[in-house]
Specification:
It is a single chain. The protein is α+β, with helices and mostly antiparallel strands and 287 residues long. It has two domains: 90 residues, Phosphorylase Kinase, domain 1; 184 residues, Aminoglycoside phosphotransferase (APH), C-terminal lobe (Aminoglycoside 3'-phosphotransferase, Chain: A, domain 2, Alpha-Beta Complex). The chain contains ten helices and eleven strands. The N and C termini lie far apart (57 Å).
Length: 287
């Protein structure tokens, strides 16, 4: 058995722990992810190179803050660190459950409750990541200013430096920036998961919704709900339940494309130009 895992678990749990099996499980395209069966229970571990240890440090912070501020299920962080040239993050193992008829209603209600956790500014007291990309969270008192300076412009710079977008697209974005205050209504900052799509939640024991892989910050809650509509969206009951608990402002559906410019730019920078047509369509409509 790989001595890396043995050393990591012994360092944290003590010499009495014994690993029985290690099996690879799905966990995204960035990290090596495994289910570890021991004489003290089951665990989930993410592993990457040592120079990417900040990814796990910020993920740990994000999960811990989610655990404090959200009533949704959040995996408990056991430890993170570096060992033998690798970085790692160990979480409790959450057994997958079967969604009952109340799952989506509960999910929508609890996310709405989380979004009622507020702050006096948009942002966060530390930077983190979305996927493997850096995510800047400098504080701003205005959402559109935060959205432009901390979300769109940094991703545009990466895309421009990589040759993925040209002058015409950049110019369209700058026209859009001038109109954002008129397009997006003001709201108080809401505590967001930040990367909430179908790959970052699951049904856990007792049909409880769990969220993980966060990119947390205080932002406009419409950005979060818009994000959930990508890649097929969530069940309609989720949206109905959310609206019942914390109604969105009129015209939200018309603003979804604007909010989703950020995750689409992220996908361009992570996976290439196949996501550009969605961005170009939105710019044509609003810029």
């Amino acid at each position: 058995m790989d001595s890396f895992y043995g050393n990591v678990f012994t360092n944290h749990f003590g010499p009495e722990i014994a690993i029985k099996t290690i099996s690879s499980v799905p966990g995204g395209c960035i990290n090596q992810t495994s289910k570890v069966t021991t004489n003290q229970g089951l665990f989930f571990i993410k592993v990457n190179s040592e120079n990417l240890s900040d990814l796990f440090e910020k993920e740990q912070l994000g999960l811990e803050l989610l655990g404090e501020k959200s009533s949704l299920g959040v995996p408990k962080v056991l430890t993170s660190g570096t060992q033998s040239g690798k970085s790692y993050l160990i979480l409790e193992w959450i057994e997958k459950g079967i969604a009952n008829q109340n799952f989506w209603e509960l999910f929508g209600q609890k996310l709405a409750e989380q979004h009622k956790v507020t702050s006096d500014q948009f942002g966060l007291d530390h930077e983190n990541h979305i996927g493997r990309l850096p995510q800047s969270n400098n504080y701003h008192g205005n959402w559109t200013e935060f959205f432009v300076e901390e979300r769109l412009k940094p991703q545009l710079k990466i895309a421009r430096d990589s040759g993925l977008v040209g002058n015409a697209t950049m110019q369209q974005f700058y026209f859009l920036f001038l109109n954002l205050n008129e397009l997006i209504p003001e709201e108080s900052p809401a505590f967001l998961h930040g990367d909430l799509w179908s790959g970052n939640f699951m049904c856990g024991p007792n049909s409880s919704p769990y969220i993980f892989d966060p990119a947390i910050y205080f932002g406009h809650r419409e950005a979060e709900i818009a994000f959930t509509t990508m890649f097929g969206g969530f069940d309609q009951e989720f949206y109905s339940s959310y609206e019942e608990e914390f109604p969105l402002q009129p015209g939200f559906e018309d603003r979804v494309e604007i909010h989703n410019l950020y995750p689409l730019l992220v996908h361009v920078n992570l996976f290439g130009p196949s996501y550009l047509p969605g961005i170009e369509g939105t710019l044509k409509r609003f810029a």
